Amino acid sequence: MALSRILRHREFDSAGASAFSSAVRERRDQSFEQSEQRIFVPENAFSGSSACSLSLDGVEHRYLLAGACDGGLACFDVQSHYHAQREGQQDLHEHLFRIQASPPEAALPLDAQPRHRHQSATSSHRDEITSIQWYPVDTGLFLSSSKDCSARLWDANELKTVCSTTQESQINCVAMPEAASGHCLIALGAKDSVVRIWDPRSDCISLNFAGHIGLEVTCVAWSTSCEWILISGGSGGQIRLWDVRKANSLLVLDQYNTKNYSEGLNPMPDVEHLRQRSLKFPSAGDALMDRFDRNLQEWVSSKKLVKMVSDSKRNDMATAHDSAVRMLKASGDGLFLYSAAARMTEMRKWDLASGKNTLVNFELPASGLKAWNAVALDSSQNLFVAHNKAIFHLDTATGKRLSKLSGHYDRVTACVYNPACGELYSASLDGNILLWEAERLKSHGKHAEKEDGNGGRAQDFGNEDDWTTDED
């Protein structure tokens, strides 16, 4: 639907207000282009290395944390261009702080290495950063893991390690729950078939979940609707749902357990009911969604889900993919899960309420997926998926490719979406961190003047209002 038609509906119908804002955000996200005015400077932060992990804080949406291939860490201020523009400087994003990689040490026997130790302010990882994440409710802490078999919780103010843990095998991924209010547990996935739960308060591994088929746990992610539900993927193509309060896994996703045609067409009754109510009463939309989130969390946390899974015929050897799982991303409402494997033809969308495959065909290249968990959700709950040197923007409802972002010279390793500014940040092995912004917003830092035929400067009034005058 054209924006002019949606704008006309907004003037006469209260339901058109939300439809207009959604359409504007969707069109803005589909018109992303590489920014020419704002440039990140990672060379000074990483001294020749390239960024392999990115994380944006969820409180201010301002501080971008980057992990390098040599074990170094750096933080960038994505809003520094406002101050630079006011001071008449260029829009260069320099690092706020950096933690240099520690030099390689002599290898010690595993028995002689301490499992939990406190690090000094200058001590960092000695190998490639596998994953990083800000503390969900505060910018004073962030988490990092590396191929040196260690995971560390950092104090962002003092740049010191608060606590750390070392495993016998390489740590592939770490994750903290974004919706947690009753615990601060951290999930660890390493090169073995055991999912470990690390409690930073006691600085020990409090839980071990075994049951994955394959050699290693490749991805871990927490549910966005229930703080007790953990999702893990392995090299054998298996995806398991765990309740950290229980001993066994709740559910094993099966790629052959699919929705039929009628189930795929009909949306969930609760979601459709809330959508109609919110369109009819726009002011009550937030309250209705909050109530729905609470009811969903209570339903998942209750014994109904456990009883439903236990009564059903489970197959613990079922697989969600035919190759290693390399991407896990839960939707914002916690109702769906997006996963991808080494073969991009195996990207799937799961209904977490029933554990069924929704059979959405995502338009992605058939070549293998090399990046690990390089995915982001935009404001419309659509996906940005990094694949080789490009980033694909996919519609999560139909799987259709909306756009393709090309600008890197090597494999893209991470991408992060900023919901506050409507921007996308991506890192690559070419050593660059690129910023993607909407085409309609790119002129905010550019001069709108053009040279006329006489050699003078003619100002471009294309973006000005019809009633703008130069009388003042």
TrEMBL record:
Residues 462-472 have a biased composition (Acidic residues). Keywords: DNA damage, DNA repair, Repeat, WD repeat. InterPro entries: Rad28/ERCC8/Ckn1/ATCSA-1, WD40/YVTN_repeat-like_dom_sf, WD40_PAC1, WD40_repeat_dom_sf, WD40_rpt. The keyword DNA repair applies. Residues 445-454 have a biased composition (Basic and acidic residues). Residues 445-472 are annotated as: Disordered. PANTHER family: DNA EXCISION REPAIR PROTEIN ERCC-8. This is WD40 repeat domain-containing protein.
